[in-house]
Amino acid sequence: xxxxxxxxxxxxxxxxxxxxxxxxxxxxxxxxxxxxxxxxxxxxxxxxxxxxxxxxxxxxxxxxxxxxxxxxxxxxxxxxxxxxxxxxxxxxxxxxxxxxxxxxx
Length: 105
What we know:
Layout: H1 4-17, E1 23-25, E2 33-36, E3 43-47, H2 54-98
Antiparallel strand pairs: 1-2, 2-3
Helix pairs in contact: 1-2
């Protein structure tokens, strides 16, 4: 399995290559056709038919929300990594002030 940085880069590349969102129902092309409607022209995602029922509705909602959810999660990873670095630096500062880990320094 690739390391976290490689995996995150792969995910970001897939997001960048995918059709821009949000993806919305565009019934002119069929009852299950979804596309991005915000540009100068229709950009199709295609037909998304998961069947009927609660599971199908949940799967459709998951797919339709995936782009926005993945982007939000990627941004959160960046934010949390930055916070982690800040806290690690702060922790080292406290350790030095308390005389801890001096042999390791």
